[in-house]
C-alpha cells in the first residue's frame, strides 16, 4: 500500500491514497479537515464497523445501521499518543440476537480489524455495544 501527503498551506495537508481517494489533514483546530490523530481514530472506527456489519451480514442478520461512538484519551505531553480508546457500537436491525452482535464486535476487536490490532499494542482498548430495533 502506498500513499502521498503534500503540504497545501499553514498546517493543512492533502493525503492521496493509492486507490485515488483524497483527504485533507489539518493540524490547526478547528481546521479544514481532521487532524492526523483524529484520522487515526476515524480509521479505527471505520475498520471495526466494516467488520461488524460484514460479520453480521455473513451470519444472515438484517442489519440496517451501525454507528461507532469513539472516545480517546491522549497523553498530556508530547508525543501526545493515545493512551486509551473506547468504542461503543450502536447496531440497528431486525431482531438482532445479542449473542451474534457480541461475537461480531469481539471478532472485530480481537481478530479482524487491522487498525485496532496495531493500536492495541500501545493503547488500552475497550468496546461496548447496544442493539436498537430498526
Can you describe this structure?
The protein has 134 residues and is of the alpha+beta class. It has two domains: 1-34, N-terminal domain of TfIIb (Single Sheet); 36-133, K homology (KH) domain (GMP Synthetase, Chain A, domain 3), CATH 3.30.300. 33% of the residues lie in helices and 40% in strands. A three-stranded antiparallel sheet has the order 1-2-3, with no helix packed on it. A three-stranded mixed sheet has the order 4-5-6, with helices on one face. Helix 1 packs across helix 2 (98-112). The mean pLDDT is 97.
Number of domains: 2
Shape by Cα distribution:
globular
Distance between the termini: 37 Å
Task: Compute the number of helices.
Answer: 3
String of helices and strands: EEEHEEHHE
Which architecture of the largest domain per CATH? 2-Layer Sandwich
Number of strands: 6
- Helix proportion of residues, in percent? 25-40%
Give the integer mean of the pLDDT values. Answer: 97
Low-confidence stretches: none
Q: Which CATH class of the largest domain applies here?
A: Alpha Beta
Q: Main beta sheet: strand number and arrangement?
A: 3 strands, antiparallel
Percentage of residues in DSSP E strands: 35-45%
Class computed from helices, strands and strand pairing: alpha+beta
What fold name stands as the CATH topology of the largest domain? GMP Synthetase, Chain A, domain 3
CATH superfamily of the largest domain: K homology (KH) domain
InterPro entries: KH_dom-like_a/b, OsmC/Ohr_fam, OsmC/Ohrsf
Protein name: OsmC family protein
Amino acid at each position: 500500500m502506498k500513499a502521498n501527503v503534500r503540504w497545501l498551506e499553514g498546517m493543512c495537508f492533502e493525503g492521496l491514497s493509492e486507490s485515488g481517494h483524497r483527504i485533507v489533514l489539518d493540524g490547526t483546530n478547528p481546521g479544514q479537515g481532521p487532524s492526523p490523530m483524529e484520522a487515526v481514530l476515524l480509521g479505527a472506527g471505520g475498520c471495526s464497523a466494516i467488520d461488524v456489519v460484514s460479520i453480521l451480514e455473513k451470519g444472515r442478520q438484517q442489519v440496517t445501521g451501525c454507528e461507532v461512538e469513539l472516545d480517546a484519551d491522549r497523553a498530556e505531553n508530547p508525543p501526545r499518543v493515545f493512551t486509551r480508546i473506547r468504542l461503543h457500537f450502536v447496531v440497528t436491525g431486525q431482531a438482532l440476537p445479542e449473542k451474534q452482535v457480541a461475537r461480531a464486535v469481539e471478532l472485530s476487536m480481537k481478530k479482524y480489524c487491522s487498525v485496532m490490532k496495531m493500536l492495541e499494542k500501545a493503547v488500552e482498548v475497550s468496546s461496548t455495544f447496544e442493539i436498537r430495533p430498526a
